[in-house]
Amino acid sequence: MSLRRMLSTSSTNLKSIKIGLIPGDGIGREVIPAGKSVLKKVESKYNDLKFEFADLDAGFEYFQKNGVALPDETVNVLKNECDGALFGAVSSPSQKVEGYSSPIVALRKKLGLYANVRPVKAATATDKSVDMVIVRENTEDLYVKEEKTYTKEDGTRVAEAIKRISETATSRIAKMAYNIALQRQKIRETSNAISLHSEPSVTVTHKSNVLSQSDGLFREICRRVYDENQSSFSSVKHKEQIVDSMVYRMFREPEIFDVVVAPNLYGDILSDGAAALVGSLGVVPSANVGDNFAIGEPCHGSAPDIEGKGISNPIATIRSTALMLEFMGYPDPAADIYEAVDANLSEGKIKTPDLGGSSSTQEVVDDIIRRI
After folding, report:
1. Contact between 172 and 156 (Cβ < 8 Å)
2. Helix (H/G/I), strand (E/B), else coil: 356
3. Strands 115-121, 50-55: parallel, antiparallel or unpaired by DSSP?
4. Which residues form the Isopropylmalate dehydrogenase-like domain (predicted)?
5. pLDDT band of 299, cuts 50, 70, 90
6. How many other CB atoms are found less than 10 A from the CB of residue 197?
7. Tens digits of per-residue pLDDT, 117-146?
8. pTM for the full model?
9. All domains in the chain, ordered by first residue
10. Of 92, 106, 314, 371, which has the maximum CB count within 10 A?
11. How many angstroms separate the CA atoms of 217 and 263, rounded?
């Protein structure tokens, strides 16, 4: 599913690859080292790969100490020195904190990471009913964060938020979703593995029956991208699903979904909900992706309730590391990582408490590294 492989037939021949490491808050500091350890193991297996690392700051805790959540230095190093990055977790206060905004949201904007790609696959060999990728538009919708609160003449307050859907953002996220569907089908055909999906499909998720202007535009542009690129996408089946019925069917019939594309808010909700289908947010990876950069990011958040206990699940970070490598143009080492994680999960002996085990973070990391 490498973005560079989608956009170009030329291969990447970098001998030295620099990865930014941004632990962030909470258990981010416990799982990002797992990603680094896996990359070092991959380096020892592939003679033509060498990884360098840049330790970078961001997060709510950094904001509390320094008054800024995303320092300029972090952005500059990522832009000018790094080939990819891993982001651990960020604490998000439930109430407004003056001057604070999420650093991962800011990074998406500053680095042009317009897509959040989240594969959701059954964690064990005995359950093959889930194998989908949710492709979430990453830059607009309600997440433009243009909000205001005002007081009416009767003294009651009203809060309003802008929902922005643009033709430009929708076109590029739709193209990525269709290309991912094609790439997944190619992998299925070459691997000869048993698959849930006999043909590639993209399900466009919307609420245009109510939001006829904003979601209506999203639906229209996704369809137009499909129709105008039939020479490329003719083998992909175009589907549509209203978001509330999408949630219902995703839990009742997850096996019918291959690639799902959605505006920012729906994509956020669907991808977190889909994690429940495979047991834990601790096993679900994601990548924030643009045309020239990718940040791997686990989906579990900062988890303050288990911080410091050494039991956080590193698998989401390790899979996100592999996903980052895919989008950087390194599918073979990514596949090695995926296979090692799948073997760990299938065997089921060494697992953290969120999956019903009693192993530590480091024990899981060591087991996966042993399998690469």
Report:
1. no
2. coil
3. unpaired
4. 18-368
5. confident
6. 18
7. 999 988 654 455 899 999 999 999 998 889
8. 0.87
9. 1-114+295-372 (3.40.718.10), 124-278 (3.40.718.10)
10. 314
11. 11
pLDDT in tens, 241-268: 999 999 999 999 999 999 999 999 999 9
pLDDT at 22: 98
Tell me, rounded to whole angstroms, the distance of Cα 329 from its chain centroid.
17
121, 125, 126, 128 alpha-carbon torsion, rounded to 10°: 30
Q: Token digits for 351?
A: 């697992």
Helix ranges, 46-166 (H): 60-66, 72-80, 103-110
**Kind plus residue range of the DSSP H or E element containing 147:** strand 147-151
Stronger pLDDT, 195 or 290, i.e. the higher one: 290
Residue 162 confidence (pLDDT) above 80: yes
CB 250 within 8 A of CB 270: yes
Q: Map tokens 């090692």 to a residue.
A: 340
Residue type at position 201: S
CB 66 within 8 A of CB 32: no
What backbone torsions phi and psi does residue 149 show, to the nearest 5 degrees?
Answer: -125, 130
Let me know: does 339 contact 56? Beta carbons within 8 Å. no
The mean pLDDT value for 25-41 works out to 96
